[in-house]
Amino acid sequence: MCAKHKPVYKWDAEKIKALREHMGLSQQALADELGTRQQTISEWETGMYKPRRSTGNYLSLVAERAGFEYAVGSGEESEEEEKP
To answer: What is the Cα–Cα distance from 25 to 19, expressed in whole angstroms?
Structure first.
């Protein structure tokens, strides 16, 4: 059997901050949602660190639930950046 693969979302500082703002959350509120510290969210948003794979997967689930969409893979523009 062949398992279906979901797209792999690459979470970078800009996309994490955009997700948080899309959801109308503070860093602390997003940290609470993810079960992590506010400082961790800050470090992701400044690019100091990136989420681990399991946390990245959870971010993708949270983004999907929030209706937040962006391009998959590197070098692609997000849908939010497209011109009207």
So the answer is: 9
For residue 19, with 0-12 CB atoms within 10 Å meaning exposed, 13-18 middle and 19 or more buried, which class applies? buried
**Who contacts 81 (Cβ-Cβ below 8 Å, separation ≥6)?**
none
One-letter identity of residue 67:
G
Locus of tokens 């792999």: 8
What percentage of the chain's residues is helix, strand, coil (to nearest 5)?
50, 0, 50
pLDDT tens column, 32-50: 999 999 999 999 999 999 9
Mark the ranges of the chain whose per-residue pLDDT is less than 50: 1, 74-84
Which domains are delineated in the chain? 13-68 (1.10.260)
- Coil vs helix vs strand at 72: coil
**What CA–CA distance (Å, rounded) separates 35 from 67?**
20
